[in-house]
Amino acid sequence: MERFYEQVQEKANIDIYARMAYMDTMTGLGNRTAFLEENKSNAIFPGMISYIMMEANNLKTINDTLGHNKGDELIITIAKCMRKAVGHNGQCYRIGGDEFVIILKNKTAAETEEIINKVRCENEFADKQSDITISVAIGYVWTDTEQKNLEDLM
């Protein structure tokens, strides 16, 4: 019985480590590795695809003047705003220190812009609730071409 328990625990640990390999532990978003893996399949995805790129504004200033805990708060808040705005419509990633990506599939350019507006609204709401400035730069690309060169899109 003890050996069975050890095997169950070992399997649980393996599952946790496997998830952690693709997750940004600070935000709970997909990490750069997960993003790159997703891109492999997106290159041959037959439908519409959008990439919304985001970068936190003033992270260095916040870190330098208020401390890294406040910088972490900025990153975590942006991630929460992304998840809330996107819901089940797409996938959210933190691909660098202050860089984020949202991938939407089978959404029109207009639907992509609606989600961007939701992200902006969530960030504006969070900014009003916070003692630090919650602000992001946002850009996006949308395509419905059959063959997608993701490097060119990015």
TrEMBL record:
Gene3D superfamilies per the UniProt record, alphabetical: 3.30.70.270
Pfam families, per database record: GGDEF (PF00990)
Residue stretches making up the GGDEF domain: 47-154
Name of the protein: GGDEF domain-containing protein
